[in-house]
Amino acid sequence: MYNNDELTQIAKRILDDKKHSGRTSNLSYVVKDKNGYTLVAFMDNTVSEAGLRTMLRYVLIVGFISIIGMFLLSLPLSKCIIKPLEENDRKQKQFISDASHELKTPVAIIGTNTELLSREIGNNEWLVNIKYENERMGILIKQLLDLSHAEDVIVSMENINLSRIVFGEILSFESFAFEKGKEFIIDIDEDVYLIGNQIQLKQLVSILLDNAIRHSSGKNININLKRKIILLS
Question: N or C terminus: fewer CB in 10 A for the chain?
Answer without folding.
Answer: C
